[in-house]
Amino acid sequence: MENMINGYVESCELVKARIAELTSQRNTLKEQGDICAIGELDLDRRIKLLYCEYGEMQEVISCLAATMRRREKGADT
After folding, report:
1. 60 to 11, 17, 47, 49: CA distances (angstroms)
2. How crowded is residue 69: how many other Cβ atoms within 10 Å of its Cβ?
3. Is the pLDDT of residue 74 over 90?
4. Contact 11, 57 (CB under 8 A)
């Protein structure tokens, strides 16, 4: 289960990096006044979806960690 948690943590880092890339791209296009490109690339929606995915992964990590703690606590008794 620890491997699963580590996998989710890695995935969270990748998602955060992708959010940063897309946000940077969006900001650059906005500074250049290229609002059409932002719409064509659907950057706002993609960023929002990544934030949702990140939140869901955080929830999974919390559930897995709680399960591990319960198992460890049960094994100690």
Report:
1. 12, 19, 20, 17
2. 10
3. no
4. yes
Please answer whether residues 5 and 65 qualify as being in contact, where contact means their C-beta atoms are separated by less than 8 angstroms. Answer: yes
Reported as a single tens digit per residue, the pLDDT across 43-52 is: 999 999 999 9
In angstroms, the CA 74 to CA 48 distance is: 39
3-state SS, residue 63: helix
Kindly list the distances between the CA atom of residue 21 and the CA atoms of 10, 15, 25, 51, 68, in Å, as whole numbers in the listed order.
17, 10, 6, 13, 34
Residue 3: CB atoms within 10 Å: 7
Q: Does an H or E element contain 51, and which? A: helix 43-76
> Which helix or strand (DSSP H or E) is residue 7 part of?
helix 2-31
Q: What is the DSSP letter of 77?
A: -
